[in-house]
Design a protein that fits this description.
Blueprint lengths: L15 E2 L5 E2 L22 H27 L14 E4 L3 E4 L4 E5 L4 E5 L19 E7 L1 H4 L9 H13 L3 E7 L5 H10 L8 E7 L2 H4 L4 E2 L2 E2 L2 E5 L2 E5 L18 H13 L1 H11 L2 H10 L32 H23 L3 E7 L2 H4 L1 H10 L11 H13 L2 E3 L2 H12 L15 H15 L7 H4 L12
Helix pairs in contact: 3-14, 4-9, 9-12
């Protein structure tokens, strides 16, 4: 017994003595911290501290387990990269171009893909400028959807298109992937004029994504400066050329908390779990704003980061979806039409047929994605009309006499069918096609152009546009 009348080590509760001198232990659940009548207040139990230690250790071991699991699925030595800016170099004509004879790996929380670039910076084998006799050659212009750095080369839209045409028509065919991440239609046009036409393509395909409209009228992209066409009395006038080389980065200003910044940078370079969580936060507008408000994240500068990064400011390139976008977007559409018309003339001069194909925005295919964007940017219901972009692009192709494929409805139908199998066409965070998306786009283009050597009836007659396909 302790001096207080209780058993030594009993830190809570009391032992009651009855009138008969019997000792009673307190019932289960009736323990109390009430001080003893005969001694000082009992010491508090260490249980809370033990629970905190156990909880902390559990969290640490759980994080370590996740880290180990991610490193098993992401091979050792690969670094997570937010984009493939390091795969490019400055180009005075195009703004940037992919590195020649380069091999690098893109690693995100959704994919790990090694990209090999040939001697002219194109994804794929080396292609001769001279076209072998009897070979049908397709040149595909476009941005990151065409380059396809989210999937292995053999699973890209261009390679799947070549395989489908080869199997169906039994001919010698070559599809050259001339896509480069970040390119707008103006850069695709300049690439054709300076490089693409030298491959003597029988068919040239311009893959058009919605943000082309905005960047066709801009001299700055988050990757760097780019060429800019202006409409003049003589037609299109090229400005901001030669494109200025990137300036030497100035010394960074003193950070309010350089130690915290250094710790974040080190963790980002060494922890797969950190990158995974960071990507999820960036993909959620609410979480991104919360992180910024806490000071653990910074609001991105629009010209420095891609539009997929979470922030409370609607990216300017998305103004093209507004029901009343205003004069700036209207001017961008005028420049876009002039670019497509000039590409039509240049392909005709090179004896190449031209097909313009729109690339569906994932939010135009998956309603929940559009709803999430509305929530992320606090948009009013009905503020956007996403479908108007492909419709207006089709009208432009009608006016200038270019064949046009709008695969939007076919993608919606395919997405609905795949949903029953719990499959999708786009990477949820990245927003680009996965392997299924690439293959489905190849299927639609192959069906649209018909037997190799021809286009649709509308194109064969020199006009008319096909504004849709049933995908069958």
């Amino acid at each position: 017994m302790s001096p207080s009348g209780g058993f030594k080590g009993w830190t809570s509760g009391r032992i009651a003595e009855s009138d008969r001198g019997q000792v009673r232990f307190p019932k289960r659940g009736s323990m109390t911290t009430e001080p003893s009548r005969t001694g000082p207040r009992s010491r508090p139990a260490p249980r809370l501290r033990v629970k905190i230690v156990v909880l902390a250790m559990s969290v640490v071991f759980a994080l370590l387990g996740c880290e180990v699991a991610l490193r098993i699925f992401v091979p050792e030595g690969l670094e997570f990269t937010a984009h493939h800016k390091l795969f490019c170099e400055h180009d005075p004509v195009l703004g940037w171009r992919k590195l020649a004879n380069f091999e690098g790996t893109h690693v995100t929380s959704e994919y790990a893909v090694t990209e090999r670039l040939n001697g002219r910076g194109l994804r794929g084998p080396d292609y001769s400028y001279e076209k072998p006799e009897g070979r049908y050659r397709v040149l595909v212009l476009g941005d990151s959807f065409v380059e396809g750095y989210t999937v292995a080369f053999e699973k890209t839209f261009t390679e799947r298109l070549a395989a489908r045409l080869r199997d169906r028509d039994g001919v010698d065919i070559e599809v050259i992937n001339a896509g480069t991440g970040g390119y707008a239609s103006d850069q695709a046009l300049l690439f054709f004029e300076h490089e693409g036409r030298r491959y003597h393509p029988d068919l040239t395909v311009l893959m058009f994504f919605d943000n082309d409209v905005w960047y066709n009228n801009q001299a700055q992209y988050w990757r760097g400066q780019k060429p800019l066409f202006r409409i003049s009395a003589d037609g299109l006038e090229l400005t901001n050329t030669p494109v200025p080389a990137p300036a030497v980065e100035p010394a960074a200003p003193a950070e309010s908390d350089p130690l915290f910044r250094s710790i974040k940078k080190w963790i980002a370079a060494h922890s797969r779990v950190y990158v995974l969580v960071r990507d999820r936060i960036k993909s959620s507008g609410a979480l991104a704003r919360w992180a910024v408000s806490l000071g653990i994240a910074e609001p991105p500068a629009e010209h420095e980061l891609p539009a997929t990064v979470g922030a409370n400011v609607v990216p300017s390139e998305w103004r093209v979806y507004e029901r009343d976008p205003g004069p700036v977007i209207e001017q961008a559409w005028q420049v876009t039409e002039a670019i497509i018309d000039r590409l039509r003339r240049k392909t005709e001069e090179a004896s190449s047929r031209l097909l313009v194909c729109s690339i569906p925005f994932d939010a135009d295919i998956y309603r929940h994605r559009l709803d999430a964007i509305h929530d992320q940017y606090d948009l009013e219901p009905g503020a956007w009309e996403v479908e108007q972009v492909s419709a207006r692009l089709g009208a432009i192709c009608d006016r200038v006499g270019v064949d046009y494929l709008d695969p939007t409805q076919a993608f919606r139908d395919e997405a609905e069918q795949l949903a029953a199998e719990d499959q999708v066409l786009y990477f949820p965070l990245d927003g680009h096609w996965n392997a299924l998306g690439h293959d489905f786009m190849a299927r639609l283009v192959a069906e649209h152009i018909g037997p190799v050597g021809t286009l649709s009836a509308g194109a064969a007659s020199g006009g008319g546009a096909d504004h849709g396909t049933d995908g069958e």
